[in-house]
């Protein structure tokens, strides 16, 4: 930890300090819980630049509420939808705003670890799609973005709101050729806990886990937080896998993701906020029996609004009230408080990682869709929508 911000509860690991250091004396080092924190070597010249770019101690530019507009959105491209965690908004925004030379930066898998990488052009963004509920290592991507922007190239950055704030603090000026996208974030999970959970899943499945997918989809959307786990011999869909249990209970989250998180607020750091659309059929009753899940899109700035101008040609878009987002996805605007279980879990985890996973989780199970869901998947969507409309017409 650096002397000006010694409390882990206030450090998000955004790597702005690491990226800005002129002597490269700062490294991001994992602690016993598996989270990255900055550490300076004796080569530090005490220039103070790391403190100037730290969003925990500076006031980063957050969006004003006057430009915010909210939508539920679904890609018209079935291929885009299938490779996305929700409705395909990230892909479609990138396809609309980027050109062939645009640097697009987001989280990607490297084996069973997650880090941010940059790709050039929309056609190469597949590794950046899908949710990854693990603390992602920023590495040198802020520096790559800065170099691209200085040469006039467009750049898109997508990450948790604290990472977007870190990038903006590092850059220290606005760039018209930069589009920032933040996510409605449940929190950043421990890479070390995830790695240990994969060992537990390997034992359950009888083979070493080689690949993992959060919020997996089959032909249709069937259930939230479905995992697709691949071993050397086969892939299976898992519900209630050990990592998902620890992540959703908040027991495996970074300390800064609790009561001190200042990014669960309608004043977002990104030009656009994306998430899955919670409460879809409550807000839009005619979408009952929908076979695909939708995205939330919130435009936070004028640039964000301009960036999605024309998106309705690629996505089915339905305007909604910001209050709908807050009501059904409260992490958009509400901080969370860790229970004492969080520290108790990590106490056990540090002492004996695999034993802690067994103690704090219940056995996972393979996914079997309900009979109702099987029947819904067999019927045409047009028929299901007609039945839904008739039902609501008669009811009212």
Task: Please describe the structure with a list of short key phrases separated by commas or semicolons.
396 residues, alpha+beta, Alpha-Beta Plaits, Aspartate Aminotransferase, domain 2, 3 domains, eight-stranded mixed beta sheet, four-stranded antiparallel beta sheet, 19% strand, globular
Coarse structural class: alpha+beta
The overall pLDDT average reads 91
Tally the structural domains: 3
Give the C-alpha Rg: 21 Å
* Largest sheet strand order: 5-4-6-7-11-12-3-13
The CATH architecture of the largest domain: 3-Layer(aba) Sandwich
Low-confidence stretches: none
Helices and strands, in order, run as: HEEHEHHEEHEHEHEEEHEHEHEHHHEHH
Helical proportion, percent range = 25-40%
Give the helix tally: 15
The best one-word shape is globular
Distance between the termini: 60 Å
Strand content: 15-25%
CATH topology-level name of the largest domain: Aspartate Aminotransferase, domain 2
Q: Sheet with the most strands?
A: 8 strands, mixed
- The assembly state of the depicted protein chains is single chain
């Amino acid at each position: 930890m650096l002397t000006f911000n010694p409390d882990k509860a206030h450090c998000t690991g955004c790597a702005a300090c690491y990226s800005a250091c002129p002597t490269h004396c700062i490294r991001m080092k994992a602690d016993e819980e598996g989270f990255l924190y900055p550490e300076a070597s004796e080569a530090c010249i005490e220039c103070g630049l790391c403190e100037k770019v730290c969003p925990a101690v500076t006031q980063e530019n957050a969006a004003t509420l006057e430009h915010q507009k909210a939508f539920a959105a679904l890609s018209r491209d079935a291929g885009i939808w299938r490779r996305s965690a929700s409705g395909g908004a990230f892909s479609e925004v990138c396809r609309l705003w980027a050109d062939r030379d645009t640097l697009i930066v987001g989280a990607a898998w490297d084996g069973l670890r997650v880090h941010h990488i940059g790709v050039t052009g929309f056609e190469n963004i597949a590794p950046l799609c899908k949710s990854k509920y693990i603390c992602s290592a920023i590495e040198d991507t802020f520096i790559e973005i800065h170099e691209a922007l200085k040469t006039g190239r467009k750049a898109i950055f997508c990450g948790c709101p604290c990472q977007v704030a870190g990038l903006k603090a590092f850059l220290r000026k606005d760039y018209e050729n930069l589009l920032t996208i933040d996510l409605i974030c449940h929190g950043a999970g421990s890479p070390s806990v995830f790695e240990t959970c994969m060992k537990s899943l390997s034992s359950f499945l009888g083979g070493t886990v080689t690949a993992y997918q959060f919020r997996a989809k089959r032909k249709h959307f069937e259930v939230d937080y479905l995992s697709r786990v691949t071993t050397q011999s086969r892939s299976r869909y898992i519900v209630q896998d050990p990592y998902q249990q620890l992540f959703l209970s908040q027991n495996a989250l970074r300390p800064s993701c609790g009561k001190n998180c200042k990014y669960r607020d309608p004043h977002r750091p990104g030009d656009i906020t994306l998430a899955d659309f919670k409460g879809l059929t409550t807000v839009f009753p005619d979408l009952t029996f929908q076979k695909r899940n939708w995205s939330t899109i919130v435009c936070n700035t004028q640039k964000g609004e301009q960036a999605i101008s024309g998106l309705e040609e690629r996505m089915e878009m339905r305007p909604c009230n910001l209050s709908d987002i807050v009501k059904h996805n409260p992490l958009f605007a509400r901080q969370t408080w860790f229970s004492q279980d969080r520290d108790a879990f990590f106490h056990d985890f540090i002492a004996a990682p695999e034993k802690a996973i067994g103690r704090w989780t219940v056995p996972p199970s393979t996914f079997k869709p309900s009979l109702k869901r099987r029947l819904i998947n067999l019927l045409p969507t047009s028929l299901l929508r007609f039945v839904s409309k008739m039902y609501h017409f008669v009811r009212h």
